[in-house]
Design a protein that fits this description.
Elements (H helix, E strand, L loop, with lengths): L1 E3 L3 E4 L6 H8 L15 H18 L3 E7 L7 E12 L12 E8 L8 H13 L5 E6 L4 H9 L3 E2 L10 E6 L26
Helix pairs in contact: 1-2
């Protein structure tokens, strides 16, 4: 898998990129709204293997994101983070003809505030138009940055009846179902699985 934007390259992970994965998911600032940071490089290595397995099985994972070098090289620059999807298995997602995905994005702090998460997620969503019928995303009520990104991307926040520490679910309908009303799915833990289902 490889996706290109004006400033970024998103692609499948390689097994020799454990150091990048650990720099990302071992950083407490990155994981503030996600879950406990990875305590060791071995933990990140297991996550990387899980991501590759999930992509092989489901066609999606949180893909590696790097800056795109300018002409003439047009190759990869510094590692930025990860962005992509996980299969979503909530109510309604198993109906015939339905395929729901969960969007996630995690960036290293040095790259915050530049619009890169929005750019990466927007590219992923363009890819997903031909792959999914609905996209869900979860954001902690206090994570205003992530909620702004989802708003820019066109997601609708569903009614939130939980406490301040329960994530808000957002949904985006894709393809021919785009005009249909959005249903309310279950609240659940914020996306804390990192690369794959259980990194």
């Amino acid at each position: 898998m490889k996706l290109i934007t004006e400033r970024l390259v998103l692609r499948s992970w390689r097994l020799d990129e454990v150091e990048d994965a650990h720099r990302l998911w071992g950083d407490a600032r990155v994981m503030r709204w996600v879950g406990p940071p990875h305590e060791s490089q071995a933990r990140s290595a297991a996550a990387l293997e899980g991501a590759r397995a999930a992509e092989a099985e489901d066609g999606v994972c949180l893909w590696r994101v790097a800056l795109r070098l300018s002409e003439p090289a047009r190759g990869e620059g510094p590692f930025v983070g990860a962005c992509g999807f996980l299969p979503y298995d909530g109510p309604g997602s198993r109906a015939p003809g339905e395929r729901w995905l969960e969007l996630g994005y995690h960036l290293l702090p040095d790259f915050w505030g530049r619009g890169l998460a929005t750019e990466a997620a927007a590219r992923c969503l363009r890819w997903a138009r031909g792959e999914a019928t609905r996209i869900v995303a979860f954001a902690d009520p206090q994570n205003l940055g992530s909620r702004r990104i989802l708003d820019k991307l066109g997601f609708m926040a569903l009614p939130h009846h939980g406490g301040a520490d329960e994530p808000i679910e957002h949904q985006l309908v894709c393809g021919s179902n785009a005009g249909h009303a959005l249903g309310v799915g279950p609240r659940r833990e914020a996306m804390g699985r990192g690369l794959a289902k259980d990194p």
